[in-house]
Amino acid sequence: MVSNQVKNQLENMIVIPGGTFLRGSNDSPDEQPVKLVTLNDFAIDKTPVTNQQFRVFVEEGGYGNPVFWAPKGWDYINDNNIKYPNYWYDDHFNQDDHPVTGVSWWEAMAFAEFAGKTLPTEAQWEYACKGKDQRKYPWGNDEPTFEYANYAVDCNPEELNRSSTSVFAFPKNKSFFGCFIMDPRN
């Protein structure tokens, strides 16, 4: 029988069945080498963490409680006087159903600890994203369009007045296993 705590942690998560896949890509030197990786079952959030979810961490004193932080992370936020995410008060990025942005790895780790979860490893994230069919993008092999993602085509200066979008804005941006908005460009 699954405890209520585990049920609550698994709510809004997808359990990814273990398997073997080719990790990496020959498309870019920073994605090499390509190698066969085998993973056990793991759980991952269906969507990126939203501002609404992260707000609970902020409002319940997560930035002031060392119990959630690795020692180096605690030092980092204190040395830099960090009390909330970088874009927390920017209307382009702070809507409730938008992914939280402007957080360091340390902040992401502390939030995961607060939520009773862990961050996925790079291999877990890639497998959840592309699954067993070696898709180029989370949604498949079709090139990005505005149906799939919020992105700047050529990253021209006039495009730099950007904003995030709802984690539910692109229903076609769904990974092999059913996770949404896994493309890091969103």
Strand content: 5-15%
Q: Report the radius of gyration as a whole number of Å.
A: 17 Å
Biggest sheet layout: 2 strands, antiparallel
In one word, what is the shape? globular
Distance between the termini: 38 Å
Overall number of strands: 4
The main sheet orders its strands as 1-4
User: What is the tally of helical segments?
Assistant: 5
N-to-C SSE string, H for helix and E for strand: HEEEEHHHH
Mean pLDDT: 88
Low-confidence parts: 1-6
Query: Structural class given helices, strands, pairing?
Result: alpha+beta
Relative helix content: 10-25%
Secondary structure topology:
Blueprint (H helix, E strand, L loop, with lengths): L3 H7 L2 E4 L2 E5 L11 E5 L2 E4 L5 H9 L11 H9 L25 H11 L6 H9 L56
Antiparallel strand pairs: 1-4, 2-3
